[in-house]
Task: structure prediction
Amino acid sequence: MVCTHQNMIQIKDIDPGSKGCEECLKIGDSWVHLRICLTCGHVGCCDSSKNKHATKHFKETGHPLIQSFEPGDDWKYCYIDRQYLE
Ligand SMILES: [Zn+2]
Ligand SMILES: [Zn+2]
Ligand SMILES: [Zn+2]
Result:
């Protein structure tokens, strides 16, 4: 199966609006790993973090594609297909 949502990727060079999870920074909370939305550049925390803001961002906006925002990691993930992309 091939992800058909890659036309929603609007970020070419990742230039995040934030160094950490935007929502966690606002409420002074912490996270485990960071994910960046490839449609709008939103930075959110992963599902191992208690607040799961990356997943919440997908549920609120419908932006399906994220990329790991951890140093050395460059995998992408589609929430709709639930699959990792090359
Ligand atoms: Zn997809
Ligand atoms: Zn968060
Ligand atoms: Zn987004």
Notes: The CA atoms of residues 36 and 43 lie 4 Å apart.
